[in-house]
Design a protein that fits this description.
mainly alpha
Length: 382
């Protein structure tokens, strides 16, 4: 009974820790973005998602985060989670205690032995899922990422664990006839990490997409995004690169604990992946890993224009496409306002001027080019 009470208290303690310390810490990180104090949020987001045009970006993020993490937002998910969690723990420990003490015990003589013994395997599966849930909730509180929908997500995991354990153990008992093996299978079915379910779902989605002829754009193509990050994004409804590309930066900042730099880098790669599809690895081999790299390849950034023509010819040759197609693609990305918004966020996160060229552009003939030292001197004195 003591172990049951300890496990019941861990989610509550994790929520209190996040509410009293982690939420304020995350709010300070959000409001510490390096933007000008007087810059309005409409300069980045436009008028679509901004109720008050006079708000600064920091005030807007503070209001969004405070609203998303108010006690009113947590109330229903917490009630649903604890109804499942507390009842399931009580039922699991009751069933296991009956099995260990034996049906002949005095306190159990009023209960049906067959009913409790048949519930042993689902109870063990629920106990395994509870241990995994406690681990995830504690880790999320440590990372300042204990969102309201996390409780609903783990509630579903707790509800599904006993059914999965019962199904697998019935098969195990029928094939092996060993109760010890079935108990191990029941526990493992509950404590198996979420990545296993994610892998099965991804395989099912891939098979369905291949049957329908649709192209797969998995999150695994994004550099810097591991299995845990993919699972976290799936919790937000982001299951492929297309959804990652169109998801709002502000929503990701408010609903997850990822930094602005990380979100910009992932979305930058996702935009390029959506544009080029299965040719994404080919573009990465050309040192073009995101849409902002394509944006910087536009003719407007090349002086003289011959440098752009050489670059376009090289990309066309490497990809096996006509130069007109490559040029059209660069123009498309250059005119995409979503890519420009990414660049606006990035330039505010790193407020600095672009690096100057080492070789002076004034000298046209190769024999007349200035040395690196002379050009550096010009840059420093200009």
């Amino acid at each position: 009974m003591g172990a049951c009470l300890i496990m019941m208290s861990v989610p509550i303690l994790a929520l209190l820790s996040f509410s009293l310390w982690g939420r304020e810490r995350r709010l300070r990180i959000l409001t510490a973005l390096p933007t000008h104090p007087d810059e309005k949020v409409v300069a980045l987001l436009g008028m679509a998602d901004v109720p008050d045009p006079s708000l600064t970006l920091k005030d807007y993020l503070r209001d969004r985060y405070s609203e998303a993490h108010s006690w009113r937002s947590y109330s229903v998910p917490i009630i649903v989670f604890h109804l499942v969690y507390v009842f399931g723990l009580y039922w699991s420990f009751l069933t296991i205690d009956y099995t260990l003490s034996g049906a002949a015990g005095g306190q159990w003589k009023e209960y049906s032995g067959s009913a409790l013994s048949s519930a042993l395997f689902p109870a063990v599966g629920f106990l395994g899922a509870s241990l995994l849930t406690v681990r995830y909730l504690t880790w999320r509180a440590i990372r300042f990422d204990l969102q309201p929908n996390a409780f609903l997500h783990f509630s579903y995991r707790l509800v599904s664990a006993p059914f999965l354990a019962f199904f697998l153990t019935r098969i195990t008992e029928l094939t092996t006839g060993k109760k010890q093996v079935a108990l191990l299978i029941a526990f493992l079915s509950g404590i198996v990490p979420e990545s296993a379910y994610q892998w099965l779902q991804a395989k099912w989605r891939q098979a369905a997409a291949e049957k329908s002829g649709k192209e797969i754009l998995p999150l695994q193509w994004i550099q810097g995004l591991n299995t845990d990050d993919e699972l976290r994004l799936w919790e937000e409804g982001i299951t492929d690169t297309q959804r990652l590309a169109v998801e709002s930066i502000v929503s990701l900042l408010v609903n997850t604990a990822y930094s602005l730099d990380c979100i910009i880098d992932w979305k930058d790669q996702a935009f390029l992946c959506v544009y080029v599809g299965s040719e994404f690895p080919k573009w990465r081999n050309l040192q073009i890993r995101g849409a902002m790299d394509v944006l910087g390849s536009a003719p407007a950034y090349y002086k003289p224009i011959e440098r752009y023509l050489k670059f376009r010819a090289g990309v066309s040759k490497a990809l096996g496409k006509e130069e007109a197609i490559v040029e059209r693609f660069i123009d498309t990305v250059y005119n995409d306002p979503r890519v420009h918004q990414l660049w606006s966020f990035l330039s505010r996160a790193y407020p600095t001027r672009p690096a100057e060229p080492i070789v002076c552009e004034a000298a046209e003939a190769p024999s007349l080019r200035a040395t690196a030292e002379e050009c550096t001197g010009v840059i420093l004195t200009s």
